[in-house]
């Protein structure tokens, strides 16, 4: 089965900012794929490239087997797209905006839109300008789903919504995937996303640092917490593949794949260290540890003499 989304060595720069850096990934049909990362990680840039709003500097992209650079309009007609601030005609009613959108799609759109708005408890006669943010989001989702697209792309769609609306919004994604269609979901609501996602992509500084089945990620990663005697005590080498390490003074936390818990216990005894606390972290805890490591590494780089000299040179040139 062909991927619904495919990126091959894709890079995109805006001035001095490397938004995407050699990104390669595939998203298979019938999955809910969550894209996670801090602000500026490259999530929205990737979505704009998929929809043909921007072109990559390098690399190839396919969406539903088409190139967004040459088939942008066809892709947008077949993909459902919901942003965090969907543009809606304020003077229309809920029913009128569905009737208007139906003119751009095949027969059946209006009937499906009416079914969706009823499911979301929307009042057909209410003006868009009088809707709350959560209700507007439901209208936008109804518009995006009414042509039953094989791919639904959502960029922070639940930002600012109350918990109940957010839950309803995300749970509707499960129904989409159950019908063999796909969802690409960019969100900061990690705890909610964890309930509905099949796959997860973690972007940092424009690079993919993780892309795998959510359950595989959670099962393979173990959190190790260890309290060292002093802040100057060197941390031990953790027996396993450490994918992240963050220090909070003398407290250290690792994310480890393939941890050998027996060897870790022996190591702590041999070095007269307290026994480590070992547990399975949530997706949100995994992401936070990765983000903290990334922030610490960035701060360390910026504190090097070369970086400080470059910053001084830039500041002097701007005077």
How many DSSP H or I helices?
11
Number of strands: 13
Order of helices and strands: EEEHEHEHHHEHEHEEHEEEHEHH
* Backbone structural class: alpha/beta
The biggest beta sheet is recorded as: 6 strands, mixed
Helix content: 25-40%
Strand content: 25-35%
| Global outline | elongated
Q: How large is the radius of gyration?
A: 23 Å
Question: Which strand order do you get reading across the main beta sheet?
Answer: 5-6-7-3-8-9
- Spans of at least 5 consecutive residues with low confidence: none
Indicate the CATH architecture of the largest domain: 3-Layer(aba) Sandwich
Q: Return the CATH topology of the largest domain.
A: Rossmann fold
Q: Report the CATH C-level class of the largest domain.
A: Alpha Beta
Would you give an account of this structure?
- With 319 residues, this protein is an alpha/beta fold.
- It has helices at residues 43-50, 72-78, 94-102, 109-119, 133-145, 163-178, 190-196, 214-220, 261-270, 283-302, 305-317, and strands spanning 5-14, 17-27, 32-36, 58-63, 79-82, 151-155, 182-186, 199-204, 207-213, 221-227, 241-248, 251-257, 277-279.
- The chain has two domains: 5-205, 3-Layer(aba) Sandwich (Rossmann fold), CATH 3.40.50; 219-317, Alpha-Beta Plaits.
- The protein contains eleven helices and 13 strands.
- Helix 3 (94-102) packs antiparallel against helix 4, helix 4 (109-119) packs antiparallel against helix 5 and helix 6 packs parallel to helix 7.
- The model has no long low-confidence stretch (mean pLDDT 88).
